[in-house]
Design brief:
This is YvlB/LiaX N-terminal domain-containing protein. Helix content is 48%, strand content 20%. The chain contains five helices and four strands. The two termini are 35 Å apart.
């Protein structure tokens, strides 16, 4: 028995999660284990680890407005796994608020495989927006 599976069963025994939540977590852990041979296979290029956002605004002069954000893609993966710990009532409230904000995402429908597919597509993403005084660039590295 893996350490992750043991922890899930302990949380179930302590009534910290429901049987359905435990089942979802175990399925996610087993899915990761099955996906790992695919990750070990040689890939066309280097596996991207970060989403980078670079922005600059020189309209005020002296090059004062610069932003350089580097977000680990592993954060996306962890975020999807953490949604399985959110109680269903809270997910319904979160989904409603996201919908009001114009983000029509159902957190209960997010699956780790979908995030891997998204990350695979992000590998090819490059967004460049440039005008006379400012620029924004989004890419994976």
């Amino acid at each position: 028995m893996t350490e992750q599976r043991r922890q899930i069963l302990e949380m179930l025994a302590e009534n910290k999660i429901t049987a359905d939540e435990a089942e979802q977590l175990i399925a996610a852990v087993e899915g990761e284990r099955q996906a790992s041979p695919r990750e070990a296979a040689p890939q066309a290029g280097p596996r991207r680890k970060y989403l980078r956002v670079l922005a600059s605004d020189d309209s005020a002069g002296a090059g004062t407005g610069h932003v350089n954000i580097r977000v680990p893609l592993q954060l996306l993966r962890a975020g999807v796994r953490l949604t399985s710990f959110i109680p269903p009532q809270a997910i319904a409230k979160i989904n409603a608020e996201l919908g009001k904000s114009g983000v029509p995402i159902d957190l209960s429908e997010l699956k780790p495989a979908q995030i891997e597919e998204l990350i695979d597509h992000l590998d090819e993403l490059v967004v460049d927006v440039v005008d006379e005084t400012s620029s924004v660039r989004v890419f994976c590295e």
